[in-house]
């Protein structure tokens, strides 16, 4: 009986501490409960972290569709391509324009940036949401899509510049270790994370979530389940096209984690985590599995 009682207690503890991992296995009601947990967790973390060390709401990356009473903060490399597609489709742009012209440029022509006061008012009268992603998974995605693929001329030049910074006179391709060191050096030089590229800048800087008001926090890890509930809650039935603009990965996340994070040293890992630590805490993510990957000795 004692053993049985201990087992029950341990099970309850595991369920509570891993609530986010249970996710949406039990249907829509669970998604709503998890969203409430995410919002409450964000509020508590913001209070503990002095509002993410921000004093003003950052309006640069919010899109407001007045016709749909919808407000969305762009977290690049966390489902933005799909939502750009929907926002720009609502704006009347053609499929060709959406696929061949810079999406943020198109969106800003129809959805002008609101100032802080107007944005706060919009949050009170619109359905406001954000999509987040595990910070290091997002970093891997940014590295592969922006710097390795070389499908964008600007980021091809950035990739080459980073490579030559750490391999002067060399002739090769950027490594993940180069990328990590570049981020570390950039933050140290500026004494801030604010100047980082939008594709790997912390969410805390892009959306200043501690100073925003959200109705829904989506996670890329539970995207389909969260999306179904968001569409219903925001009354977007029949208005959202579930498109996958970016191609699926050829390798699993676990493979990529070991492939890239085994290239960096423990010191680099510690410094990298410190840069994204607030994002981890705000949205309830853990870096434990990344820390467990054996690191390079030098």
UniProtKB/TrEMBL annotation:
Membrane topology designation: Single-pass type II membrane protein
EC number: 2.8.2.-
Major location category of this protein: Golgi
GO CC, one annotated term: Golgi membrane
Enzyme kind, highest EC tier: transferase
Keyword annotations of the record: Carbohydrate metabolism, Glycoprotein, Golgi apparatus, Membrane, Signal-anchor, Transferase, Transmembrane, Transmembrane helix
GO biological process, one term: carbohydrate biosynthetic process
Localization in the cell: Golgi apparatus membrane
Pfam families: Sulfotransfer_2 (PF03567)
InterPro entries (alphabetical): Carb_sulfotrans_8-10 (IPR018011), Sulfotransferase (IPR005331)
Example GO molecular function: sulfotransferase activity
Record family assignment: Belongs to the sulfotransferase 2 family.
Protein name per UniProt: Carbohydrate sulfotransferase
Organism listed in the record: Anopheles epiroticus
